[in-house]
Each structure stands twice: as C-alpha cells, then as structure tokens.
Amino acid sequence: SFAWPYGAWTDTAARAARAAGFKYLFSVDYRIARAADLNAVIPRYTVMGSRSREQVRSILGQFVKAAPVR
Predict the structure, then answer these.
(1) pTM value?
(2) How far apart, in whole angstroms, are the C-alpha atoms of residue 28 and residue 5?
(3) CA dist 13 to 5, 16, 47, Å?
(4) Distance CA 69, CA 20 (A)
(5) Residue 10 has pLDDT above 90, yes or no
(6) SS3 per-residue string spanning the chain
(7) CB within 10 Å: which end of the chain, N or C, has fewer?
(8) How far apart are CA 43 and CA 34, in angstroms?
C-alpha cells in the first residue's frame, strides 16, 4: 500500500507507484470509494483536529447513505 503525503497525486505518480510494485494507492479525494477504485487510486478523507463532531458525523453519514444494501 502507498499513501501520498497530503493526498496529492498525479497519473504519472500513480503509474510510477504501480511500476514500483504497490498494489493499493491512497489519495485524499474527499469522496466515497467505489469497488473500481481498488484498481486505481482509493480516495480517503482526512479528519483534522479542527473538525467539529458535527462535521465528522456529516462525513460518516455520507458513508452510511452510500453503503450498499445487503
């Protein structure tokens, strides 16, 4: 696994990371991950200490809404 510092990445960087043997690549793209992201760059959220509980709840609520029905 490889995570870019501060989540900044480019297509060129992703290709280089794959060529170096990294299977999973992580960025900070502030969106819900999809299954197809496993073969691309997996987005993640950064929760800073300055976020309020309400803001964190809102972010987590997006995951709940986007979760597949099982």
Answers:
(1) 0.68
(2) 9
(3) 12, 5, 24
(4) 36
(5) yes
(6) CEECHHHCCCHHHHHHHHHCCCCCEEECCCCCCCHHHHHCEEECCCCCCCCCHHHHHHHHHHHHHHCCCC
(7) C
(8) 9
